């Protein structure tokens, strides 16, 4: 047979099984779409940020060396004197230089005291309006701010919060609150991904954001014609000496991008990971589809072999079909991926992160990766069934094929599966016994992968037993219809096993993560109960501004509150008596912190650490540096003095909160660090007078009502927030895993559809002797439910095992309470039964519509 | 040739009426206009209760179609079919299915049994589907009659072709249907196994008073019947009572010859 004829056969076969191929193609499509969608989405984000940073950076930027992008510890950005500007202006090649003021540690609220900033991480930026801003923005209404009561706002924020000219905005900065009326609205020329921006005139910005005039946070330098950025940078650097940082436009953009980039990478790799899981599940679907096609076509293949095609040719013809499938699915998948990215961007926009489709970036690598991945995976997955097709003997043509004989899972398979599962189980056990989290997590990884593979291999063997048990519990009430459904599910354990295994993977991950998530919440809750003595916890966006701190302290005088604790994180460089130097943040707190967060000590009393010139260290640090109570540590406070502090206590590191923290009294920090260099309060705590919890809560809350970013929480609220955060994260992960589950459901549909076709005659016979349509449909639905529940049982069992192991391992990190979220597990279990029902809809409908006579007549 | 209207014979095992099923002016046509093919052409037929009726005819004569229509597996283009007092023409699928389940038994040429069920489960399947308990005593008697007592727990693949057909016969008998329809029930069997199965069918008519209609093209099989109906071109062209194999064969040859010359 010529290659051409073989090709024709492949193509015809491909189109003869449109329905089944379509299901497999959807699996390929979904996985490819997810990969491409992720790439397009992240590339587009990159483009957006690149454009933004390129537009916002001047040719050369000068800034204080210690300046960071996020708000600095003190709440006031690092600044430099105006004299620096004068010197820069005189440097060679400078066309113009302009002093800029900008702060990210501000909150802007409208007349209703509502935060104008983003709730999801994008910054609020306040600054002076400069010529450099004209490069990225246009004033679209009103004019630039002039004078202390005028403010200009970006159009995205104005639109989002329905701000109009003349509206009053209150800006809350570390130096105080001030009000201004909107006199202008400026629009970004590039896409602004979500920052809220407000502009003042230079004097106002200096006074209100920095707390002093004659200072800038940054100097934007423009080059003369013909002067390159690099040359300009050199000239400017030569004109200024002191702790300054010089960046060309490219460098500034790079630095900015790096900040965003690492966050983007996390998103990218997480999403690609989920795409990988979907691919894995898709592989099962493809293997199953081709196995079924080959089994169904045994006679036909036998005939082809009998008339002289070689094994290789048969093998190749199956692979060519797979290739067609891969190409077909991947091409559509790439297109769908772009659509997915656009959808994702729209979703992000709805959530407050504006992304414009104008920036849509499809690099050539995206379709290349998508196509390659889709095609290679499909062909590889079809390889095993293709080989099996090649092994069909010419005699198969002569045998009466009828329905393929029941496939008995082999002994070898069982042994391999047992060894893998056992080995994986052992690896998991080893992980729970690990003394170090790092080493344990390696075992955990090995254990997860090996048990998963083991379960996949052994699945067909387990199918027999598990399906019988499920049937005994579930199907008994359905009488003979239930019994037939059970027998049908047991007919081809390999197929049932593979179909269930596809579902198992997704559900195992769901179970594992839900166990870890709820253990996290339970552990934190129990730790809160055990060690947190404070009734109230106060947190802000970037620490607590002095206004809020002062208000809380005043509320402390209300009579309902027994104490208010301030906590600051102070940067220092430590030198141990042994001469080891380390950069450490000390926890400088009011001594009542020892009651707010109870800590065990291994030596000394914690209260002693709050004594004059005293401190505490964590047990691990003490052990590493051979420290004991009474030793003196040399502490160099950043921007402050270097002093010797006596170690008065060593705290046990067997804890979740403040692990390894070193405590000093707040007054100690105040003594050695100048007041304008003291960081903002990182957190605050408060305790109510006995029986006054309600009033205290109200008093504290109302004291900080002026700043909507400050949140006072009692323990109940705090626990709820914790739970909500973990819940949100889990929901997002479940959402991504849904893709894998959808692909698995397609697999169930596929298996059932094929079973219906294979059993046409049986169905005809049953209908002839009196099985009603409804009973027939129920039989198919029950079979589907059994397969789905089988997959769910395996997956949930496996996942809970993984989760429990992970918890045991993370117990070293403080995750010491194992909590199995039974409601979730049960919901998933019941849900999987419904998934089974859903998957059977179309196959059952088609079986019901089958003409009895034709069914009986089918040869 | 005129359509032979058969006169019901009285006697036998008796019952409510002597006719178990009857067809009146039944037409079954496929397609329309130029391509219209008439499979049954105004057929009238009465199936006597408690008798073994064979339907014969060359392939394409409409004998299988007639059986399918009588058994409620296929619908007719026009005419009426009654099963006892129930008119089945015009019944909806749900009612028809119920009727097949509760009142009719089937034996097909091949693929009679569900491979996932053992012999006993296959035998009781129609009753299980209906949610009825089989009559133990009757079931035992049927199983003994067809000689399957030893093999009830076997799956169909573990049984010979003859045994499989005997299970099918037992299934048809077990629910005590008003009529059993056989579609070449021995077509796939060697002559010995075929004779065995036909023997059981005959026996069930004689001893259990069962009504059986069987489509066949095998004169030997037809010779087991009480009465043979001959179909040609969708019409009943002849009938023979108390047939012998030789007589049937002769008649067939006769038709064949006539068919060729006409």
From TrEMBL, chain A:
Residues 60-83 are annotated as: Disordered. Residues 274-394, 736-851 form the ABC3 transporter permease C-terminal domain. One of its GO terms (cellular component) is plasma membrane. InterPro entries: ABC3_permease_C (IPR003838), MacB_PCD (IPR025857), Macrolide_Exporter_MacB (IPR050250). It is found in: Cell membrane. The keyword Ribosomal protein does not apply. This is FtsX-like permease family protein. Pfam families: FtsX, MacB_PCD. Belongs to the ABC-4 integral membrane protein family. It comes from the Bacteria. Keywords: Cell membrane, Membrane, Transmembrane, Transmembrane helix. GO terms for molecular function: transmembrane transporter activity. Residues 65-76 have a biased composition (Basic and acidic residues). It is a multi-pass membrane protein. The chain crosses the membrane at residues 269-295, 318-344, 364-386, 407-430, 442-475, 496-516, 732-757, 782-804, 824-845. Residues 22-235, 499-696 form the MacB-like periplasmic core domain.
UniProtKB/TrEMBL annotation, chain B:
Keywords: ATP-binding, Nucleotide-binding, Transport. Residues 21-258 form the ABC transporter domain. One of its GO terms (molecular function) is ATP binding. SMART domains: AAA (SM00382). GO terms for cellular component: membrane protein complex; plasma membrane. Gene3D superfamilies: P-loop containing nucleotide triphosphate hydrolases. The keyword Repressor does not apply. Pfam families: ABC_tran. The keyword Transport applies. It comes from the Bacteria. This is ABC transporter ATP-binding protein. It comes from Streptomyces antnestii.
